[in-house]
C-alpha cells in the first residue's frame, strides 16, 4: 500500500509531535507500506533517521512551505495556509498513492488533503467543534483515528457522518 502522510511540521524537530510522527511513519513502513512523509521545506535539515534513531526507512518529501513570515500567530496562519495550498497541488499531481493520512497539528492545513481523490484518514488528538470548515472536512474523509474514546464520542456527536468510520488507537 502506498501512503502519503502530510504533516505541517518542521522535520525533524525536538518537539514531541516530531518523534510521534517519525515513529508512526516507521511503524507503517515496517508493516510493508510504501510511505512518503510530506512536510514543508522550512527548518529541520538533519537526517531524520539518525535524529530519531529510526531503523525502517521511508521517503521524506519536502515541499514548498515558506518561513518568511514573523513568528507570530498571524505568521503561523499565513505559512499554514500556503503549505495547505502546496500540499493540495502536490496531491493533485500525484497518481502513485493509495491513501492519504494526516494529523491535527493546526487549524486547517488538513484541507489540502481534500484535493486528492484517494481515501483520506485523519489522526485526531483533540475533538473539533461543529463549524462549517470542520463539516466540510469530516463529510469528505474516509475515517478518523482518535487517540482516545472521549475524542471519538465528541467527534461522532458533532459529525454524525463519522459514525462507524472512527477507530480508537492510543499512541
Task: Identify the notable features of this structure and list them briefly.
globular, 20% strand, 171 residues, 7-stranded parallel sheet
What does this structure look like?
By secondary structure, the protein is of the alpha/beta class. The protein is 34% helix and 20% strand. The chain is built from 5 helices and 7 strands. It has helices at 16-30, 48-52, 73-93, 132-138, 149-158; strands at 2-6, 34-40, 59-63, 99-103, 120-124, 143-146, 166-168. A 7-stranded parallel sheet has the order 3-2-1-4-5-6-7, with helices on both faces. The chain starts with a strand and ends with a strand. The mean pLDDT is 89.
How many E strands? 7
Following the backbone from N to C, one meets helices and strands in this order, namely: EHEHEHEEHEHE
Low-confidence stretches: none
**Strand-pairing-aware structural class:** alpha/beta
What order do the strands of the largest sheet run in, or round the barrel if closed? 3-2-1-4-5-6-7
% residues in beta strands: 15-25%
Rounded Rg: 15 Å
Count of helical segments?
A: 5
Largest sheet: 7 strands, parallel
Task: Briefly characterize the structure.
The protein is α/β, with parallel strands linked by helices. It has helices at 16-30, 48-52, 73-93, 132-138, 149-158, and strands at residues 2-6, 34-40, 59-63, 99-103, 120-124, 143-146, 166-168. The relative contact order is 0.14.
Amino acid at each position: 500500500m502506498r501512503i502519503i502522510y502530510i504533516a505541517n511540521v518542521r522535520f525533524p524537530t525536538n518537539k514531541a509531535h516530531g518523534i510521534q510522527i517519525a515513529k508512526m511513519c516507521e511503524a507503517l513502513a515496517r508493516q510493508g507500506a510504501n510511505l512518503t512523509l510530506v512536510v514543508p521545506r522550512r527548518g529541520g535539515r538533519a537526517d531524520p533517521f539518525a535524529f530519531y534513531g529510526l531503523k525502517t526507512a521511508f521517503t521524506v518529501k519536502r515541499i514548498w512551505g515558506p518561513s518568511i513570515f514573523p513568528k507570530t500567530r498571524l505568521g503561523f496562519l499565513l505559512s499554514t495556509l500556503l503549505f495547505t495550498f502546496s500540499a493540495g497541488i502536490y496531491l493533485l499531481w500525484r497518481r502513485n498513492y493509495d491513501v492519504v493520512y494526516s494529523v491535527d497539528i493546526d487549524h486547517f492545513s488538513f484541507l489540502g488533503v481534500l484535493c486528492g481523490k484517494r481515501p483520506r484518514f485523519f489522526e485526531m488528538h483533540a475533538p473539533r467543534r461543529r463549524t462549517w470548515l470542520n463539516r466540510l472536512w469530516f463529510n469528505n474523509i474516509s475515517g478518523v483515528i482518535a487517540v482516545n474514546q472521549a475524542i471519538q464520542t465528541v467527534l461522532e456527536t458533532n459529525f454524525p457522518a463519522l459514525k462507524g468510520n472512527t477507530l480508537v488507537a492510543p499512541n
